[in-house]
């Protein structure tokens, strides 16, 4: 299903484009397919959203550039952890949310690829990642908890750890707090409240950003075009 979604996104790619390359297992399919196309003569440049993606794209033979080497990203393609009916997303399960959001926000078109299991009626069952600065992270985490509770959400948060028990550190050197909000009724309100806390670098709420979401299903693809708001 992930591969099908990635293959459909490939139909949006044209020669000469600069592409934002997302992170995660679904984006990896897109990078692999892009590599195949490059080997068959397609000429594109990629802006990777993580070190993992950079390594994968390099191995696939995709030419990479630094974000500051371009002023235009024609199309960014990335996965998601949850997608609601409006095309709003939770991202950051792999910890790449900050770079992903920077690239998606700059791109002329931001297209999300996902398997159908990522569809939800309301965001929040997937713990919301919030990237925070390391300085005084305990104090920042306390304020994140307070912000959740103030919105009637459970203040159930956890600092993300790696499997070996060490704190998870993003490519940018920050920490990640995962918020088990369960049901986020007002994503924009929550996003604003979290971002107003000094120490919060970015949230995994990608709101009104996706131009379309391509879901890979058991027998094809479904495309969600977010309604105008
Ligand atoms: O930080 C990671 C990214 O936001 C991923 O795009 C997201 O977690 C979805 O990953 P996957 O395609 O592996 O489910």
* Distinct ligand kinds: ribose-5-phosphate
Strand order of the largest sheet: 3-2-1-4-7-13-14
Oligomer: single chain
Total number of distinct structural domains: 2
H/E series, N to C?
HEHEHEEEEHEEHEEHEEEE
Mean pLDDT: 97
CATH hierarchy, class of the largest domain: Alpha Beta
CATH topology of the largest domain: Rossmann fold
Radius of gyration: 17 Å
Strand residue content: 15-25%
Uncertain regions spanning at least 5 consecutive residues: none
- Structural class estimated from helices and strands: alpha/beta
Number of helices: 6
The overall strand count is 14
What does the secondary structure layout of this molecule look like, with pairings?
Layout: H1 2-10, E1 18-21, H2 25-39, E2 45-48, H3 51-60, E3 63-64, E4 75-78, E5 82-83, E6 89-90, H4 97-106, E7 109-115, E8 128-132, H5 137-150, E9 157-159, E10 175-179, H6 187-195, E11 200-203, E12 205-206, E13 212-216, E14 221-224
Parallel strand pairs: 1-2, 1-4, 2-3, 4-7, 7-13
Antiparallel strand pairs: 5-6, 6-12, 8-10, 8-11, 9-10, 13-14
Question: Would you write up a description of this structure?
Answer:
The chain is α/β, with parallel strands linked by helices. It has 2 domains: 2-119 and 207-218, 3-Layer(aba) Sandwich (Rossmann fold); 128-203, ACT domain (Alpha-Beta Plaits). 29% of the residues lie in helices and 23% in strands. Strand 5 and strand 6 form a beta hairpin. Helix 1 (2-10) crosses helix 2 (25-39). The protein is globular and about 55 Å long. The model has no long low-confidence stretch (mean pLDDT 97). The structure holds ribose-5-phosphate. Ribose-5-phosphate (R5P) binds at residues 22-27, 78-81, 91-97, 100.
């Amino acid at each position: 299903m992930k591969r099908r979604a990635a293959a459909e996104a490939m139909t949006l790619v044209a020669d000469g484009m600069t592409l934002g390359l997302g992170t995660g297992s679904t984006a990896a399919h897109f990078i692999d397919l892009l590599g195949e196309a490059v080997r068959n003569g397609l000429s594109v440049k990629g802006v990777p959203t993580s070190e993992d993606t950079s390594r994968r794209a390099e191995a696939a033979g995709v030419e990479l550039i630094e974000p500051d080497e371009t002023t235009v990203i024609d199309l960014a393609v990335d996965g998601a952890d949850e997608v609601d009916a409006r095309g709003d997303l939770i991202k950051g399960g792999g910890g790449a949310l900050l770079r992903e959001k920077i690239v998606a926000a700059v791109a002329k078109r931001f297209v999300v690829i996902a398997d159908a299991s990522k569809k939800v009626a309301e965001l929040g069952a997937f713990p919301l990642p919030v990237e925070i600065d390391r300085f005084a992270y305990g104090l920042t985490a306390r304020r994140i908890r307070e912000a959740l509770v103030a919105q009637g959400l459970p203040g159930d948060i956890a600092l993300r750890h790696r499997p070996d028990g060490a704190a998870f550190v993003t490519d940018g050197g920050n920490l990640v707090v995962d918020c088990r909000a369960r049901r986020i009724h007002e994503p924009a309100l929550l996003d604003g409240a979290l971002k107003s806390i000094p120490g919060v670098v970015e949230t995994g709420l990608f709101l009104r950003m996706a131009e379309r979401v391509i879901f890979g299903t058991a027998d094809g693809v479904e495309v969600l075009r977010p309604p105008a708001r």
